[in-house]
Amino acid sequence: MRKRRFSALSTAFLTLAVSDLASSPTAFAQQTSPNAIVGVWEADDGSVKLDMFQRSGESQAHLLYGDQLVESDNVTFKKDEKNPDPTLRWRSMKNVTFITGLHWNDGEWAGGSLHDGSSGHTYRCDVKIRDGKMLLRGYLGISLLGQTREFHRAKS
């Protein structure tokens, strides 16, 4: 039986390559840009459609469709009746900016607020993009106690 030996040069090269990969956690990760969030996204279950955009240095979203926010005709949007601000309860939920304050930070968007028109509650939110999917996480207090919804880019 014959043993293989690596030369000192091969060992040094292998050590350098492995240490470079270990020190760079994004070496195999999908690279995402701050503008990757911009565009129309639809929940994988078809229940929500939103338009993500940039305004004043932050990412925000307009609601284009929400199955719990439309009347029985599935076309007319309900009013924002459960909004904690009484002056906003008259407005239609159509095109309401319901996500605000998302800021690009280390490969994801963090620090946002999400207004849930069906309950009137406001949640904190973060967004990540993985494998072409947008992962929107809404939570109260800490992210661990939240829920993540998956979205895909809507077809034009």
Tell me what the structure shows:
The protein is mainly β. Strand 6 (122-130) and strand 7 (133-139) form a beta hairpin. The chain is built from 1 helix and 8 strands, in the order αββββββββ. It has a single domain (34-153), classed as Lipocalin (Beta Barrel), CATH 2.40.128.520. It starts with 7 loop residues before the first helix and ends with a strand. It has an 8-stranded antiparallel beta barrel.
Largest sheet features = 8 strands, antiparallel, barrel
Number of strands: 8
Overall mean confidence score, pLDDT: 83
Order of strands across the biggest sheet? Answer: 1-2-3-4-5-6-7-8
Number of helices: 1
State the assembly state of the protein chains.
single chain
